[in-house]
Design goal:
By secondary structure, the protein is mainly α. About 45% of the residues lie in helices and about 0% in strands. The radius of gyration is 21 Å and the shape is globular. The structure holds protoporphyrin IX containing FE (HEM) and 2-acetamido-2-deoxy-beta-D-glucopyranose (NAG) (2 copies). The site of one 2-acetamido-2-deoxy-beta-D-glucopyranose has 6 residues, from α9. Its cofactor is heme b; Ca(2+).
């Protein structure tokens, strides 16, 4: 055969999967034209009743995309024989799963098997940002949902007391410049809350007045939500820069940003013009929302965001690691429950199940080990311990 023809065939073979692998603004134009609007309307509807949903969705996209790409892997509920990202320490207090499930259910009624959960997460976060006064940015669609969700992938998400140089490294690894990292943190932490179990008052210098407030708000209340931006907790704005420099932020990482020799000068410049970061934030969010997406024929379109379409098949290739947990307890861990096992978990059975799973999960390194009758099932004594464990993670 003509060498050029061979080349052409090889070339086309190499290129065609890429062509179908594109995300597009009008990806669902034919298959589900109202998809984006349905997501937007649902987020807006919830926001009216519960403005906190905006922050929940923003954090959700960060945790989905930073752990193995924007593929909805963060939504998978753990099963008795199958770990998932949801169980990782940094993900313990994630919220918004119930709204994602609601949106998915509506979309399934209108256009079954078409719109991915990963697209709902990405578009939902953008809507949350807009509703709190943040910038608009394009979220092209066509993401596919993952066939895996490993706890290990999320264990390395940045923890609340991550050192600044390490944070800079982690963001650089995902393709973000220093300014983009700062913009993301500033925007992200200008709305929403952190729970007291993530707060370490003495881990970095802190304003004495702010410390007094924080100490009394958190006294004996590990699950208490503390606003990240104490001035305008529900508004997307540039308060972050001044608050961090003044050491008036509850999370260690945010106070450290105001001290590190690489970040401090940038925070200072931005605190003089606290809207200047907004275009950078928008650009960085657009970038975050397409990190390592699955497209084309990869992955699947989940029918229900909390589980793989074929959990049986998926579990064969996943970490099998629970031998001692009552399956009835596990049944409570649906994605519309309050946090599985977070310190605020309402159902004691669920909390207990999660504690057991946490203990087992922590005992298993590396993945793909089958600890049948594993003797090292640790139980945590109280919610407080969960907090300490999170902070003690690989930061
Ligand atoms: C070094 C990087 C980061 C660290 C260590 C970090 C850590 C945290 C922690 C510990 C919380 C409290 C969670 C809770 O108690 O529920 C939190 C909240 C939050 N983070 Fe970050 N974060 C980082 C970057 C980001 C980025 C890049 C975004 C988004 C662009 C973001 C958005 C949020 C939002 C919106 C909340 C509030 C969530 C809510 O109210 O439910 N964070 N972050
Ligand atoms: C501490 O709380 C008081 C009362 O809510 C408030 O007026 C003050 O601004 C707070 N101080 C700081 C540093 O946040
Ligand atoms: C997974 O394992 C189950 C039984 O344990 C089996 O019936 C099923 O065919 C397996 N799936 C795959 C994809 O291997």
């Amino acid at each position: 055969m003509d060498a050029r023809l061979v080349f052409l065939i090889l070339f086309l073979a190499a290129v065609s999967p890429l062509a179908s692998a594109q995300l597009a603004k009008d990806f669902y134009a034919k298959s589900c034209p109202d998809a984006e609007k349905m997501i937007a309307d649902a987020v807006a509807g919830r926001f009216k009743k519960d403005p906190h949903i905006a922050a929940a969705l923003l954090r959700l996209v960060f945790h989905d995309c930073f752990a193995n790409g924007c593929d909805a892997s963060v939504l998978i509920d753990p099963l008795s024989n199958q770990a998932s990202e949801k169980e990782a320490g940094p993900n313990v207090d994630l919220k918004g799963f119930d709204l994602i499930d609601e949106i998915k259910a509506e979309l399934e009624k209108k256009c079954p098997d078409v719109v991915s959960c990963a697209d709902i997460v990405a578009v939902g976060a953008r809507e949350g940002v807009r509703l709190t006064g943040g910038p608009d940015y394009d979220v092209p669609m066509g993401r596919r949902d993952s066939l895996v969700s490993n706890r290990e992938d999320a264990d390395n998400l940045p923890g609340p007391d991550i050192a600044v140089p390490k944070a800079i490294d982690e963001f650089a690894k995902q393709g973000f410049e220093l300014e983009e990292m700062i913009a993301l943190l500033a925007g992200g932490h200008s709305i929403g809350n952190c729970r007291c179990f993530f707060v370490e008052i003495d881990a970095a210098p802190i304003d004495p007045d702010f410390k007094k407030n924080l100490t009394s708000s958190c006294d004996g209340k590990e699950s208490e939500p503390i606003p990240l931006d104490s001035v305008t907790p529900n508004v997307f704005d540039g308060n972050y820069f001044a608050l961090s420099l003044a050491k008036k932020m509850p999370l260690t990482v945010d106070r450290l940003m105001g001290l590190d020799p690489r970040t401090e000068p940038i925070l200072k410049t931005l605190s003089d013009k606290p809207t200047d970061f907004i275009p950078t934030f928008a650009k960085a969010m657009a970038k975050l929302s397409v990190l390592k997406v699955l497209t084309g024929k990869d992955g699947e379109i989940r029918k229900s965001c909390g589980e793989f379409n074929n959990p049986q098949a998926a579990s064969n290739t996943s970490v099998i690691r629970i031998s001692s947990v009552d399956p009835d307890q596990m049944a409570g861990l649906s994605s519309s429950q309050p946090l599985p096992g977070g310190p605020a978990a309402a159902d004691p059975a669920v909390a207990e199940a999660k504690k057991i799973m946490d203990g087992v999960g922590a005992a298993i390194q590396p993945p793909n080990v089958v600890p049948v009758g594993d003797p090292v099932v640790k139980k945590e004594e109280e919610p407080k311990a969960a907090g300490h464990k999170l902070r003690g993670g690989p930061l």
